[in-house]
Amino acid sequence: MLVSPRSLPERFSAFSVPDRPLAPLTTWGIGGVARLFLTPRNETELAEAVLFLENEGERFHVLGGGSNLLINDGTIETPVLYTAALNKIHVTVESGEISLACGSGMNLKKIFVLSLDEAWSGLEFLAGIPGTVGGALMGNAGTKEGAIAERVTSVRTIEADGVPHDWSGNDLDWGYRRSPFSGGASVITSAVFSLKQSERGQVLERVNRVLSMRKSQPCGVKTAGCVFKNPQGESAGRLLDRAGCKGLSVGGAVVSGQHANFFENRGNATAKDMTELTRMCGKRVYDTFGVELELEIKTMGFEEPFPLR
Ligand code: EPU
Known about the structure:
The chain is α+β, with helices and mostly antiparallel strands. 23% of the residues lie in helices and 25% in strands. Strands 7, 8, 9, 12, 13 and 14 form a six-stranded antiparallel sheet that branches. Strands 1, 2, 3, 5 and 6 form a five-stranded mixed sheet that branches. A three-stranded antiparallel sheet has the order 15-16-17. The model has no long low-confidence stretch (mean pLDDT 95). Uridine-diphosphate-2(N-acetylglucosaminyl) butyric acid is lined by residues 143-144, 213-214, 216, 225-226, 229-230, 235-238, 241, 259-261, 296.
């Protein structure tokens, strides 16, 4: 059943709008319009929204920083819950151990810069990773230097019944770019990261090591990070490159000439362009190497599962 923006409880009008364009909220700059767009300003409003939608039998999408996401063209009928306003941060320091409690909408860059300023060690691998805490946790974002789950001591979610639940980091089953929360009904509201007091020089050294690995990646252009996950023991970028994908294009969607696992929006690429390019490249790798690549990017507003061949 589709909840109409007009059928929302009156109090929701303070944090919901109809027909919100989504493309500006993604790093690719691609996507249509959300029929119903909710930006809860705190955990209570988020819980109310989740409970209301669940009671109406309505599914919903959660949108964070839009940095690893392909949103379909046209109208996105399923309501979108935007986490940007859940961006509070609370720091506790106890004998050199730092606990950083962050709202799920908190920008990763902000917590990266804060830890760099304070010489806190533990989040150096975030250098250059865009997005929000919630989005990064949903994809267990990271680099070869580490992934976000390794630093998380607890995660707080709102469950389908609108009730918050605190999960201990150790009890959660994370994997390579895989989160225990994906596919479920939980919405992440905040997370606590555990860091250590260090020295600025040492933190900077680790940050520079991460940044030097990123030199092979396109910068200052519209991408969504790596499109495909790395298959076990291989690099998707290398396979895409060897299969001749660099420079392939569909409309305004182009495979980067610098790193083949980054696809650029060079103008007015549509989701249809990006989808076709993704499919074309997945097929090339399969035809050349017999390897079936898996999407790393998340999708919104497409038929599930997203067809790759
Ligand atoms: N390579 C090529 N051609 C390419 C791209 C890569 O030959 O077009 C080769 C490189 O020369 C290198 C190997 O493939 O020998 C691995 O490439 P790279 O070091 O760039 O790492 P990657 O496996 O492609 C992973 C993560 C990146 C992360 C980097 C650095 C995935 C899917 N990608 O890339 O994460 O920044 O390591 O740590 O896990 C992301 O997940 O969105 C992402 C950007």
